[in-house]
Recover the amino acids of this structure.
């Protein structure tokens, strides 16, 4: 019997497979397409997920850099530029890799970990049993697993077969057009890498530029074709029957900017896409018996701000260790159900953020007035800091002891100074195991009965005010202490160890 059958070999399914494999569970990933599609989709990763990839050793592979990720000095929110240099503690990270490259990197890592990825198999039926779930494939094959996870996107077959509703709203007002393009050199600003459009002015790079008629985004990615995108809210419906063309995009640019921009096609095939409307939906439940949902199968939302992969990949990290603990038999009661109780509020917050950005970027004089007020607010560091934490996911706090200021939050970038030298937290979390960092030597003994599943590292901690930290495999803090002599902390540590990682053996 398969331990976990994951349906969908996109980034979320592959990330979950890697997390399970690191925990000692051997999943099978089933993908209906015979080969990776390589379609142009997301253009990078935004938010705390960049730190997560660093903590799995994947950041260096994907970025080609040997240094730790550093915060982004600027970003965008609702078609406003965000100056993040005003923040004393900037939580916003960006990794500019296309989704196809991300998938290839995760697939390579899954292969190193011995994950069985099977392509060309489509699930058409599910049957649940008390101790297993059976998947029926289109070719008649039947696969039986202890658990099945739907990572098969917004149109999830697994979600439908499991009988999980997908409530929300569909908006057909907007029309977005995107293409890989070339522009005449005379239109390029050599200093800013933006576009100089006669009759309009400069379109800044990698920003949502709003006019009263729509949005335009100019993305001149280094080493690959630039992407030009527009979004409009037409008075009459737009037909999707005719194929998208560069002439259509050029006409849209002219309407949005009130000025013409000559564009051409780069050598070879590239992105040429029109999207009408969009969906905002969250699954009624993330789990039905032995079937669970992850990523877009559990939630879809507008793409403003690019939070999709940040949300989905961290779903996978949250679910991975809990599902592995359940399969391996050491999970405390109710642990698997905390996947939904922790991750649903995060999805709801992302939906709120993307809807707010879509409203701020919309057309009309009333929105222009709202934007003038919002621009004033963004000059305040505390407002920009709040927005940056929202967009990056740095404000996420899972339910935890309110007396523990770090519990439930993403672990800080701690550096441990020990007898064997200096080591970053990101190097200690590559194996995705629970981890106790102890600068006192007091708490290591408390955790000794859990040594089969919790690693202990002692040494002086830099980058935190805590004297000890218990870090979950998804790199969130389960417990912290700031006083080596407090007997209460030893008791709360035992409770945290038992509550997260089961009874000691």
């Amino acid at each position: 019997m398969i331990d976990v059958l994951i349906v969908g070999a996109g980034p979320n399914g592959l990330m979950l497979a890697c997390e399970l494999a690191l925990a000692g569970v051997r999943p099978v990933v089933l993908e209906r397409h015979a080969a990776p599609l390589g379609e142009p989709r997301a253009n990078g990763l935004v938010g705390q997920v960049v730190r997560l990839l660093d903590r799995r050793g994947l950041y260096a592979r994907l970025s080609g850099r040997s240094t730790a990720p550093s915060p982004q000095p600027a970003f965008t929110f609702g078609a406003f530029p965000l100056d993040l240099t005003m923040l004393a503690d900037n939580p916003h990270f960006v990794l500019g890799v296309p989704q196809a490259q991300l998938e290839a990197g995760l697939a390579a890592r899954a292969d190193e970990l011995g994950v069985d990825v099977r392509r060309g198999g489509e699930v058409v039926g599910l049957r649940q049993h008390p101790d297993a779930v059976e998947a029926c494939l289109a070719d008649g094959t039947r696969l039986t697993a202890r658990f099945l996870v739907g990572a098969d996107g917004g149109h999830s077959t697994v979600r439908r077969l499991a009988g999980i509703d997908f409530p929300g709203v569909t908006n057909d007002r907007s029309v977005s057009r995107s293409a890989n393009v070339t522009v005449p050199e005379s239109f390029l600003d050599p200093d800013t890498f933006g576009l100089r459009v006669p009759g309009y002015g400069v379109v800044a790079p990698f920003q949502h530029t709003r006019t009263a008629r729509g949005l335009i985004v100019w993305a001149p990615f280094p080493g690959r074709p630039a992407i030009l995108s527009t979004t409009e809210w037409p008075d009459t419906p737009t037909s999707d029957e005719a194929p998208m063309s560069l002439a259509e995009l050029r006409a849209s640019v002219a309407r949005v900017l009130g000025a013409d921009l000559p564009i051409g096609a780069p050598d070879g095939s590239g992105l040429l896409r029109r999207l009408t409307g969009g969906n905002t939906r969250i699954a009624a439940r993330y789990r039905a018996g032995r079937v669970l949902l992850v990523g877009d199968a559990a939630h879809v939302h507008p793409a403003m701000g690019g939070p999709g992969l940040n949300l989905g990949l961290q779903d996978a990290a949250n679910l991975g260790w809990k599902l592995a603990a359940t399969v391996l038999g050491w999970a405390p009661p109710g642990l698997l159900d905390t996947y939904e109780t922790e991750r649903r509020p995060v999805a709801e917050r992302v939906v709120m953020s993307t809807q707010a950005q879509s409203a701020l970027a919309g057309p009309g004089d009333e929105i222009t007035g709202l934007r003038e007020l919002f621009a004033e607010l963004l000059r305040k560091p505390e407002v920009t800091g709040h927005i940056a934490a929202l967009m990056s996911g740095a404000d996420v706090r899972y339910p935890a002891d309110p007396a523990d200021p770090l519990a439930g939050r993403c672990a800080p970038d701690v550096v441990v100074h020990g007898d064997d030298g200096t080591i970053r937290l990101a190097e200690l979390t590559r194996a995705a195991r629970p981890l106790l960092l102890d600068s006192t030597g007091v708490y290591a003994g408390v955790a000794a009965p859990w040594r089969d599943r919790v690693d202990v590292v002692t040494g002086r901690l830099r980058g935190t005010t805590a004297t000890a930290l218990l870090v979950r495999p998804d790199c969130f803090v389960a417990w912290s202490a700031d006083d080596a002599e407090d007997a209460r902390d030893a008791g709360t540590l035992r409770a945290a160890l038992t509550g997260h990682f089961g009874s000691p053996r």
